[in-house]
User: Which sequence fits this backbone?
């Protein structure tokens, strides 16, 4: 008599990364709902929460040694909703109602670019680009792309002004979409390291950043976007200069 194999047992702790991924999806979908209802600030907070959870779920999976193929698929699908569909729809509802037909093209460009970015990342991560992704990304990653796409909203809320002009938002969305599918290298902060003697400064800096986010959330998010743009631009200039042939004999 052949004995049936015992079903594989999974611990509740081992499911935490997938639960966090699903939680991020719930935050992104709820952000769309809040955007439809006109609660744009709440929608942006939920997208930021989804980005934080997205940054933690993979690290938690590696820490608990519970990485799985289904977890990787869930993460990619949720990223598309949270950082592609949700920001695109929220921006369209917020600023693009006066030019619905033309602006919808920009929304589609952004969302499709996010889809292509995630598909390329998945292919490279599974095949040949794993080592490269540790030191940098090819194009702007989707969470950073979402934060950049929402920059007009951060600036408007920080200054107390109304929605930005639809044409400006549309062009900006298309540019961010192009940055996500670009072939240039962007820095990754996953492997950022520093001397142990500077730990206290890093901790104080993190506390200051957290305090700024709580006190001046939109100005701080806008400033972080501008800093990221500056870092990417500096990285591109450095790489371009490194590739130029020297004039020496």
Assistant:
């Amino acid at each position: 008599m052949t004995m049936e194999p015992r079903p594989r047992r999974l611990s509740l702790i081992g499911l935490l990364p997938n639960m966090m991924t699903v939680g991020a999806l719930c935050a992104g979908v709820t952000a769309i709902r809040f955007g439809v209802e006109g609660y744009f600030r709440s929608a942006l907070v939920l997208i930021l929460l989804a980005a934080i959870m997205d940054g933690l779920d993979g690290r938690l999976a590696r820490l608990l040694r519970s990485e799985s193929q289904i977890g990787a698929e869930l993460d990619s699908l949720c990223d598309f909703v949270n950082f592609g569909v949700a920001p695109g729809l929220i921006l369209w509802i917020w600023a693009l109602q006066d030019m619905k037909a033309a602006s919808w093209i920009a929304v589609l460009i952004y969302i499709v670019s996010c889809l292509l970015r995630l598909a390329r990342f998945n292919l490279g991560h599974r095949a040949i680009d794993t080592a490269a992704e540790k030191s940098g990304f090819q194009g702007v990653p989707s969470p950073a792309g979402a934060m950049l796409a929402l920059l007009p909203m951060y600036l408007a809320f920080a200054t107390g002004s109304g929605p930005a002009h639809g044409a400006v938002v549309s062009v900006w969305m298309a540019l961010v979409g192009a940055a996500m599918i670009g072939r240039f290298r962007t820095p990754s902060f996953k492997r950022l390291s520093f001397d142990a003697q500077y730990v206290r400064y890093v901790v104080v800096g993190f506390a200051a950043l957290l305090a700024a986010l709580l006190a001046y959330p939109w100005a701080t998010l806008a400033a972080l976007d501008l800093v990221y743009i500056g870092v990417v631009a500096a990285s591109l200039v450095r790489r371009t200069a490194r590739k130029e042939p020297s004039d020496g004999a």
